[in-house]
Amino acid sequence: MGTYEHIESALIHGGIYGDKTTGAVNTPIYQTSTYEQESLGKHKGYEYSRTGNPTRAALESLIAELERGTAGFAFASGMAAIAAVLSLLKSGDNVIISDNVYGGTFRILDKVWGNFGIGYKIVDTSDLTAVERAVTPDVKAILVETPSNPLLTITDLAGIARLAKKYGLLSIADNTFMTPYLQRPIEHGIDIVVHSATKYLGGHSDLIAGLVVVNDNSLAERLGFIQNATGGILQPFDSFLLIRSIKTLGIRMDRHVENAAHIADYLKAHEGVKKIYYPGFPDNSGYEINRQQAKNGGAMLSFELTEEHDIRIFFDELRLVALAESLGGVESLVCHPASMTHASIPQDIREKVGITERLIRLSVGIENIEDIRNDIEQAIKKSKRANS
Ligand SMILES: *Cc1c(COP(=O)(O)O)cnc(C)c1O
Predict the structure, then answer these.
(1) Could you report the per-residue pLDDT of 219-268, keeping only the tens digit for each?
(2) Could you say which of 246, 263, 284 is where a domain stops?
(3) Residue 129, by phi and psi: left (phi above 0), alpha (psi -120 to 50) or beta?
(4) Ligand 1 atom closest to 209 (CA)
(5) From ligand 1's centre to the CA of 330, what distance in Å?
């Protein structure tokens, strides 16, 4: 660690910084699978790149520092990271998950780990009493997202960490929507942080990656073993890209959040908008808790247009804002959770938690705010049904 105190500097100087042999300010891309050994059993710390690679190690040390953990692990995708974390469980174990987690997290539990005897319980984790009620002897872990996807529900991280300690559970937080710039779950007592680095950390919609951070040596050892044994590692070039992206995370997030707050206000006041979910509104039920555990409300929001609007036309008419899965890129992206990101969740569960057919999720980009607002405005206008 260099001489700095603030996260804006850590984003740029954190972790293993630069290259000692040449003085290069950036960690080189060590595009190698193996490392020549001086003699039997004598090497420079690297033997094979599944096990360890210097470019990946630089990224892993950086994310560990940013999340205030002791060890970081980089994976080929957010799902590979989550799969590795869930590999800490064994047959007969159950995991509690938030009732609107990322669709892929639900899917891997429902369709893959279920085959190996690992169960799950869907709970509204914003309600700590409901979480405690769901803890049975076979529950071994709890995985939360806050704000959640796509309804931006807030879960009390310190409360979850307290419950986890009381019952001996692993607490896991998916910090994709906030990033360590806005929220650091380990500081609230959470054991494991996971990221889809594909989103804000990557930030340019040009790579797929996942990260895990832990704050305990025995957990680090177990996860390092799983990472090497199952092999879903991030490649050196993508590790380099991610280090490069993280340097600008702070200024990107500042602009994302500023734009999102503006769009949220605009939509809230719009007569064509029936409902809006945004953790930055003081009248949002999770506002106080979010304010205590995060820097601000982030840059994601979801909303429903009134029945007078045809949402298919709304999506078709957007010109600047792109209709696409994913989020957290510099460009504004909009999606229809019910048929896209959350299609793998059965319709009855979707409707029950509020992921309706009319729900629209918006990842506010860092374009000029007037351009974003004007695009949304004209699309809402054109989507209004003629007879209404
Ligand atoms: C996208 C996403 C994931 C999955 O990550 P990939 O990089 O797409 O594998 C997990 N959690 C959240 C909250 C996400 O948004």
Answers:
(1) 999 999 999 999 999 999 999 999 999 999 999 999 999 999 999 999 99
(2) 246
(3) alpha
(4) 7
(5) 17
